[in-house]
């Protein structure tokens, strides 16, 4: 066989050095370019140079693959938010996460694509929620109000809304060439004057 031709699917090797990572990376590339609806395990197998059955061995099906992407995303988000010194910085890091991991971000918040009861997903989602609650706890109760849970919803809504609008290019005009993270910091300062005390 000529080296320029690819092997037929039946002749492609099943094993791969790190097939799981290779398929996840290929899937993230597809999602970033064309959205989750463009995903196909057969196409991802072709991209990874393995048999079409190989990705199913790790993920079972497309839903399993998307659930693994979401779980990985929540884990990364938990780590990112957990490194913040206060609630404002947690919001900035949330926006940064969305910009650096747009494919994860898109899948994480589309529950219809995921297996909601997946242990890896629910664990990672809980860790991200815990990181947000820890950031909310850094705010003096007099500044955030008596309901910490509601304060967490408000903080998440602000960061998530800003990140979603930013990724959808809805803020291209208002943000322009400015650093989106600095714009977000300025926005929180306008809305929450007590954060500057």
In short:
With 197 residues, the protein is an all-alpha fold. It has helices spanning 19-34, 41-48, 54-59, 62-82, 87-100, 102-108, 119-136, 141-144, 148-167, 172-175, 180-191.
Q: Overview of this structure, please?
A:
The structure is a single chain. Helix content is 66%, strand content 0%. By secondary structure, the protein is mainly α.
End-to-end separation in angstroms reads 71 Å
Category by helix and strand content: mainly alpha
Task: Encode the helix/strand succession as letters.
Answer: HHHHHHHHHHH
What spatial form do the alpha-carbon principal axes imply?
globular
Largest sheet: none
Average pLDDT metric: 87
List keywords for this structure.
197 residues; mainly alpha; Arc Repressor Mutant, subunit A; Tetracycline Repressor, domain 2; 2 domains; 0% strand; globular; disordered N terminus
């Amino acid at each position: 066989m000529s080296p320029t031709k690819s092997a037929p699917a039946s002749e492609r090797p099943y094993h791969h050095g790190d097939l799981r990572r290779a398929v996840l990376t290929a899937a993230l590339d597809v999602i970033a370019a064309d959205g989750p609806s463009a995903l196909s395990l057969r196409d991802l197998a072709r991209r990874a140079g393995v048999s079409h059955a190989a990705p199913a061995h790790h993920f079972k099906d497309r839903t399993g693959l998307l659930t693994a992407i979401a779980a990985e995303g929540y884990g990364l988000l938990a780590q990112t938010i957990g490194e913040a010194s206060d609630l404002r910085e947690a919001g900035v890091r949330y926006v940064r996460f969305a910009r650096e991991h747009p494919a994860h971000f898109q899948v994480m918040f589309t529950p219809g694509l995921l297996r909601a009861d997946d242990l890896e997903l629910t664990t990672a989602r809980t860790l991200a929620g815990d990181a947000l609650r820890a950031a909310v706890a850094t705010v003096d109760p007099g500044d955030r109000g008596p309901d910490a849970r509601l304060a967490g919803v408000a903080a998440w809504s602000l960061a998530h809304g800003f990140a979603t609008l930013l990724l959808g290019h809805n803020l291209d005009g208002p943000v322009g060439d400015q650093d989106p993270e600095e714009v977000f910091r300025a926005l929180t300062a306008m809305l929450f004057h007590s954060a500057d005390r």
